[in-house]
Amino acid sequence: MGLYVETRVRAGLETLWERAQEPDRHQRWDLRFTEITHLPRADGEPQRFRYATRVLPFLTVFGTGVAAGEREHPDGTRTSAPRFSSAHPLSLLAEGSGYWRYVPDGDGVRFLTGYDYRPRWGRFGALADRLVLRPLMGWATAWSFDRPRLRLEDGVTRVRPGLRPVREERRA
């Protein structure tokens, strides 16, 4: 059972694409990652990346991924397709893949993702995934996809789960 999240952002496609595809910007709003770093690559090779997620104050889980493809379609939509995995023994997530899609829609962009992954640790991992990790990942993805919308539409600069947003001052 894969995860799917969609939101509509009143912003330009290029602006939203930059916020989502550039690692230093992406890690600011995506609750699922503490750090995302592009790895060096040779011309013509797909972009590889390293990600880290702080699970507890003393535990960070690492993984790697590859931007398996990016497409700009004739209708103006864009899609990126990452694959990812973690060899970290404490990571419940073993490997997965997904897509991010950007669909121009009037004065904004439909921003959506679908992804799935395979948990590790056999039956225990499957149960922990179904009861804990998958619902948590769905919530974290939805929460995270709302951050660029708030930033681009309302000027919200920082939001943490359960805390009030901080808005930018609007200057004339």
Give an overview in words.
With 172 residues, this protein is of the alpha+beta class. Helices cover 28% and strands 42% of the residues. It has helices at 13-21, 23-29, 122-154; strands at residues 3-9, 35-38, 48-56, 59-72, 78-85, 93-105, 108-119, 156-158, 166-167. The chain has a 7-stranded antiparallel sheet with strand order 1-7-6-5-4-3-2. The termini are far apart. The model is unreliable at 162-172 (pLDDT under 50).
Order of helices and strands: EHHEEEEEEHEE
Report the radius of gyration as a whole number of Å. 17 Å
Going by helix content, strand content and strand pairing, the class is alpha+beta
Q: Give the averaged pLDDT, no decimals.
A: 85
What does the largest sheet look like?
7 strands, antiparallel
Helix content: 25-40%
Distance between the termini: 48 Å
Which consecutive residue ranges, at least 5 long each, have pLDDT under 50? 162-172
Strand content: 35-45%
DSSP helical segment count: 3
Shape: globular
